[in-house]
């Protein structure tokens, strides 16, 4: 009897912990990371809460399966264009989540989809880097077709600011980013893991 009561208490406690720590802010809809990433378009990090000397970060899918995505992350750091090959592992029970790893399999971060526009043009993502001093950040990511039209949906912008709370936000995308990667033929520094 005591074992059953103890087990029931533990299950209730664990369930309550999972429910209250799911995501911040909470969302009602059930989002799917694969839906947003499954596109040949570049996906730009438009705004972020992370302070860094980095701009023009974009992800370009190379291949996708039900369990993983292989993509290139391109960015400008200290005025030098860089790229790194990454692998995202989708979590079957949690379709809004993805674990990001290097080509060699070293975990980099967990990404959690907090909001996804109905037309899949933009999303708000919580990024949890793996590391002792790493800080969680919130990012507004946008498909290339949206930024070339010059519009980012108001609901995505609003949700990003709600999720960011009082943290400072930084504009990571600018018009020059298109020329830095899409139209440029200059060499890009490939980073090792």
TrEMBL record:
<keyword id="KW-0732">Signal</keyword>
<protein>
    <submittedName>
        <fullName>Lipocalin</fullName>
    </submittedName>
</protein>
<feature type="signal peptide">
    <location>
        <begin position="1"/>
        <end position="21"/>
    </location>
</feature>
């Amino acid at each position: 009897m005591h074992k059953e009561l103890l087990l029931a208490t533990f299950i209730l406690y664990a369930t309550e912990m999972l429910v209250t720590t799911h995501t911040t802010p909470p969302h009602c809809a059930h989002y799917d990371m694969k839906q947003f990433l499954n596109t040949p378009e570049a996906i730009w990090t438009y705004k972020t809460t992370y302070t860094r000397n980095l701009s023009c970060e974009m992800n370009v899918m190379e291949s996708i399966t039900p369990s993983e995505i292989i993509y290139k992350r391109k960015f400008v750091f200290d005025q030098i264009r860089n790229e790194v090959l990454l692998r995202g592992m989708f979590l079957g029970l949690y379709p809004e989540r993805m674990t990001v790893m290097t080509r060699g399999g070293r975990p980099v971060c967990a990404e959690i989809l907090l909001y996804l526009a109905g037309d899949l043009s933009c999303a708000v993502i919580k990024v949890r880097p793996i590391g002792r001093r790493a800080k969680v950040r919130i990012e507004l990511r946008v498909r290339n077709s949206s930024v070339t039209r010059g519009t980012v949906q108001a609901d995505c912008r609003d949700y990003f600011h709600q999720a960011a709370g009082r943290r400072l936000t930084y504009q990571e995308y600018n018009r020059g980013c298109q020329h830095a990667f899409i139209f440029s033929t200059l060499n890009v520094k490939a980073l090792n893991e």
